[in-house]
């Protein structure tokens, strides 16, 4: 962060969060670092500009040198699936669950036929409104994603894409399965896209710097796509892509190339983190 950016941030709202909510600062910081790097992966300059507006200590995010690569790659991958859905459905609804301070709606830039909803807890939405303001075609809903009441605010008569980046493993399995079942039963057709950890990934959460620093807890581990298909008879998992197989790590540092090679070739690590796409 530049001196001028530090000055701007010092005058902005001070952000003090704990638990799962606090991890949104780590992802914002990671996207900002990527945007300011010589060879950005995501190139999300709005995240970099937003980071300059708030007053917080980036050392408290728990991100280690180079961790911003994984943050940017995850966002880029799920952005790609989002664009694919919207290319097939010019008129659609997008539900961005646990949106935090993610700038996905600006990165994807959906067309006029898309109704976009950013859903998160009230204090997160309040901060989001302060930093981003309103955007045509998108609506913010202040609610826990597990509260069924917010669904009454969303149209049900069009194909629906549900995006849940960095969310499902913070839910208990009971709450997570109930949420996915409720979404499938509410909307006539669509897709669910999200990232998930296996049970091994959940057990190794103390090694996750951002989770540890935020004093958050991961709960729901998914070992096999078939576990998700048992939630509702209409759910079909079309893609379960290992994180280490999803991106080109050759452009990264030697440390991350070694990690990616191990992740691709050791079954336990290969399945520890995945991107899921389900149709209903």
Molecular structure report:
With 280 residues, the chain is α/β, with parallel strands linked by helices. It folds into two domains: 3-61, no CATH class; 74-279, Vaccinia Virus protein VP39 (Rossmann fold, 3-Layer(aba) Sandwich), CATH 3.40.50.150. The protein is 41% helix and 16% strand. It contains 13 helices and seven strands. A seven-stranded mixed beta sheet has the order 3-2-1-4-5-7-6, sandwiched between helices. The longest helix has 21 residues, at 68-88. The N and C termini lie far apart (44 Å).
* Range of strand content: 15-25%
The CATH superfamily of the largest domain turns out to be Vaccinia Virus protein VP39
What is the 3D form? globular
How many β-strand runs?
Answer: 7
What is the radius of gyration computed over CA atoms, rounded to a whole number of angstroms?
Answer: 18 Å
Helix proportion of residues, in percent?
Answer: 40-55%
Could you say what the CATH architecture of the largest domain is?
A: 3-Layer(aba) Sandwich
- Strand-and-helix sequence, N→C? HHHHEHEHEEHEHHHEHHHE
| Average pLDDT | 89
**How are the strands of the biggest sheet laid out side by side?**
3-2-1-4-5-7-6
> Remind me, CATH topology of the largest domain?
Rossmann fold
**What is the total number of structural domains?**
2
Q: CATH top level of the largest domain?
A: Alpha Beta
Q: Find the structural class using helix and strand composition.
A: alpha/beta
């Amino acid at each position: 962060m530049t001196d001028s950016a530090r000055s701007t941030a010092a005058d902005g709202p001070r952000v003090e969060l704990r638990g799962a909510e606090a991890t949104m600062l780590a992802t914002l910081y990671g996207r900002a670092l990527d945007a300011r790097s010589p060879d950005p992966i995501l190139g999300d300059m709005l995240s970099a500009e937003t980071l300059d507006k708030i007053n917080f200590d980036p050392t408290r995010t728990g991100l280690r040198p180079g961790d911003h690569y994984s943050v940017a790659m995850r966002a880029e991958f799920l952005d790609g699936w989002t664009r694919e859905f919207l290319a097939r459905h010019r008129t659609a609804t997008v539900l961005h669950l646990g949106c935090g301070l993610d700038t996905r709606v600006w990165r994807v830039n959906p067309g006029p036929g898309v109704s976009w909803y950013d859903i998160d807890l009230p204090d997160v939405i309040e901060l989001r409104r302060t930093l981003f303001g309103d955007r045509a075609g998108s609506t913010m809903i202040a609610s826990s994603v597990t509260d069924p009441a917010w669904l009454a605010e969303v149209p049900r008569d069009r194909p629906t894409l549900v995006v849940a980046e960095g969310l499902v493993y913070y839910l208990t399995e009971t709450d997570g399965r109930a949420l996915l079942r409720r979404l499938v039963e509410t909307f006539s057709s669509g897709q669910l896209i999200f990232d998930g950890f296996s049970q091994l990934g959940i057990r190794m959460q103390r090694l996750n710097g951002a989770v540890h620093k935020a004093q958050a807890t991961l709960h729901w581990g998914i070992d096999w796509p078939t576990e998700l298909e048992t939630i509702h008879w209409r759910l079909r998992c079309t893609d379960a892509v290992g994180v280490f197989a999803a991106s080109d790590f050759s452009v990264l540092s030697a440390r991350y190339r070694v990690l990616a090679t191990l992740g691709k070739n050791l079954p336990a690590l290969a399945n520890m983190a995945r991107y899921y796409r389900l149709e209903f």
